[in-house]
Amino acid sequence: MTLLPPASPSPAALPAAALQRNLAYVEASIVEDEVLQAARERAIELGAAPVAPSVGALLCIYAQLSGARSVVEVGTGAGISGLWLLDGMREDGTLTTIDSEPEHQRAAREAFRSADIPPARTRLINGRALDVLPRLADGAYDLVFIDAAPLEHPQYVEQGVRLLRSGGAILLHNALLGGRVPDPAQRDPATLAVRAATRAIAEDSQLTSVLIPVGDGLLCASRN
């Protein structure tokens, strides 16, 4: 079963101004602690676009609901999404996070240290995700979060589904790509790649999915 937005707005769709007010209200309702705030500032300095607070909160909730012990993150950034994931994971859980930028991982490591997260709970791998993911075990992970190059989203999704256990979830960030994905006039390579990844999830009979319009769009799919 696939739960995705309709191709065209419904007659009851909110006016744009009201929708923006709602989204701003949602973001403002989430208060991040000092460690997350510092990590967010560092991410902006590094040019590592951080997930919105609403996206982070959803990551935490997904990790909690699934009782996640083993999580893979594609795109470490400055550690913001990792902090949210770790907050929701079991205390004996391990986050494997992959990024090709050493500076990003240094910032994330510092954020984890500031949050008093034991080193054994994080495994930071520096390298291209498409080189690392094939080396990870099939069906061994509770949650896969993808927040990396849109052009490679289809390959990340293919690998991510392989890694999931039954009942696990794959979460794809930037699923709206700044409003380009739902705009049929947009045909640039990154937009086409994200659409292809979304379509692959929608057409996979193993998955039940929904696209949530928080941050830049979070596509969530659970494996049957």
Description:
The chain has helices at 16-28, 34-46, 53-66, 80-88, 102-114, 129-132, 153-163, 189-203, and strands spanning 2-3, 70-74, 94-99, 122-126, 141-146, 164-173, 207-212, 218-223. By secondary structure, the protein is an alpha/beta fold. It has one domain (17-223): Vaccinia Virus protein VP39 (Rossmann fold, 3-Layer(aba) Sandwich), CATH 3.40.50. An eight-stranded mixed beta sheet has the order 1-7-8-6-5-2-3-4, sandwiched between helices. The termini are close together. Mean pLDDT is 93; it is low at 1-6.
Number of domains: 1
CATH top-level class: Alpha Beta
> What is the CA-CA span between the terminal residues?
10 Å
Shape: globular
> Unreliable segments (pLDDT under 50, ≥5 consecutive)?
1-6
Q: In DSSP terms, counting alpha (H) and pi (I) runs of 4 or more, how many helices?
A: 8
Write the element-wise H/E pattern from the N-terminal end onward: EHHHEHEHEHEHEHEE
Helix content: 40-55%
Q: Which homologous superfamily in CATH is the superfamily?
A: Vaccinia Virus protein VP39
Kindly report the CATH topology. Rossmann fold
% residues in beta strands: 15-25%
Number of strands: 8
Q: Main β-sheet: number of strands, strand sense, barrel status?
A: 8 strands, mixed
Mean pLDDT, rounded to whole units? 93
What Rg is obtained from the alpha carbons, in whole angstroms? 17 Å
Helix/strand class: alpha/beta
- Architecture (CATH level 2) name: 3-Layer(aba) Sandwich
Major sheet: order of its strands? Answer: 1-7-8-6-5-2-3-4
